[in-house]
């Protein structure tokens, strides 16, 4: 069905992992493929939205018709997102942002010396929380990658981050969907409601989640 559910709505999405450099050749990364965020960008575009995608390093092509901004580190992703929130009606944070980054990046490749090497890591900015804390802010959707008690953690995250909606999926051993997978199942909650999106391709899950986000966005931004 050619729904133009989000016609005229500007959607900003962050996707993929971040890479935190240790030295000129090494980094700390994670297993995020970016597939969920890219699928959401395509689904929002198909729903008629004007989409901007801020992406960490992934092996995916930029979706057609989506303004794609490539970044590497959590700090770069934070800056790229914050520079674009002014023009956004909806922000969806799907990126697997590193929570910690090396305190200093070595200028030259670190050599093997002793049996142990210590790295000091410092906290990165929380992008989702920063967007949710803005005075004039978009409708904010966060993701939660948990390995158990998904519903409890999703509700807690909604409050802790000050988001309007949180979508949680089970990842890790034995879980049916999530990182590096083509399928996903989501538990979605907001203040005053919740819903389960059962296991489906990330393309289909993205379509359903965009519909849900549009419903909640309009519920809070009309009359
Ligand atoms: O805090 P936690 O990583 O569990 O929360 C996940 C959500 O917060 C995701 O939406 C993720 O994109 C976002 N996040 C962020 N900046 C961080 C860490 C997480 O935007 N530094």
UniProtKB/TrEMBL annotation:
Catalyzed chemical reaction(s): N-[(R)-4-phosphopantothenoyl]-L-cysteine + H(+) = (R)-4'-phosphopantetheine + CO2; (R)-4'-phosphopantothenate + L-cysteine + CTP = N-[(R)-4-phosphopantothenoyl]-L-cysteine + CMP + diphosphate + H(+)
Keywords, in A-Z order: Decarboxylase, Flavoprotein, FMN, Ligase, Lyase, Magnesium, Metal-binding, Multifunctional enzyme
Cellular component GO terms held in the UniProt record: phosphopantothenoylcysteine decarboxylase complex
The UniProt record lists the keyword Transit peptide: no
Cofactor annotation remark: Binds 1 FMN per subunit.
Example GO biological process: pantothenate catabolic process
Cofactor requirement: FMN; Mg(2+)
Binding positions for CTP per the UniProt entry: 99, 109, 125-128, 143, 157, 161
Keyword Ligase part of the UniProt annotation: yes
EC number: 4.1.1.36, 6.3.2.5
Domain DNA/pantothenate metabolism flavoprotein C-terminal, first and last residues per copy: 6-215
Molecular functions (GO terms): FMN binding; metal ion binding; phosphopantothenate--cysteine ligase activity; phosphopantothenoylcysteine decarboxylase activity
Recorded metabolic or biological pathway in which this protein acts: Cofactor biosynthesis; coenzyme A biosynthesis; CoA from (R)-pantothenate: step 3/5; Cofactor biosynthesis; coenzyme A biosynthesis; CoA from (R)-pantothenate: step 2/5
Region spans: Phosphopantothenate--cysteine ligase: 11-223
Job of this protein: Catalyzes two steps in the biosynthesis of coenzyme A. In the first step cysteine is conjugated to 4'-phosphopantothenate to form 4-phosphopantothenoylcysteine, in the latter compound is decarboxylated to form 4'-phosphopantotheine.
Family: In the C-terminal section; belongs to the PPC synthetase family. In the N-terminal section; belongs to the HFCD (homo-oligomeric flavin containing Cys decarboxylase) superfamily.
Protein name: Coenzyme A biosynthesis bifunctional protein CoaBC
Annotated source species: Methylococcus capsulatus (strain ATCC 33009 / NCIMB 11132 / Bath)
Upper classification of the organism: Bacteria, Pseudomonadati, Pseudomonadota, Gammaproteobacteria, Methylococcales
Residues included from the entire protein: 195 to 417 of 420
């Amino acid at each position: 069905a050619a729904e133009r559910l989000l016609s005229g709505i500007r959607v900003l999405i962050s996707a993929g992992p971040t890479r935190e450099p240790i030295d000129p050749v090494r980094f700390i990364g994670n297993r995020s493929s970016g597939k969920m965020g890219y699928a959401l960008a395509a689904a929002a575009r198909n729903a008629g939205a004007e989409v901007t995608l801020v992406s960490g390093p992934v092996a995916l092509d930029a979706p057609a018709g989506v303004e794609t901004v490539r970044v590497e580190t959590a700090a770069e992703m934070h800056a790229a997102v914050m520079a674009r929130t002014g023009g956004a009606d909806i922000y969806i944070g799907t990126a697997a942002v590193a929570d910690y980054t090396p305190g200093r990046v070595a200028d030259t490749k670190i050599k093997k010396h002793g049996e142990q090497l210590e790295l000091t890591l410092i906290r990165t900015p929380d992008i989702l929380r920063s967007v949710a804390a803005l005075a004039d802010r978009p409708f904010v959707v966060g993701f939660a990658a948990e390995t158990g008690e998904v519903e409890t953690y999703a509700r807690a995250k909604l409050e802790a981050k000050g988001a309007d909606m949180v979508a949680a999926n089970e990842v890790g051993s034995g879980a049916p969907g999530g990182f590096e997978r083509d399928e996903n199942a989501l538990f979605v909650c907001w203040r005053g409601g919740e819903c389960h999106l059962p296991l489906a391709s990330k393309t289909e899950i993205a379509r359903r989640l965009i519909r849900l986000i549009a419903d909640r966005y309009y519920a809070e931004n009309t009359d």
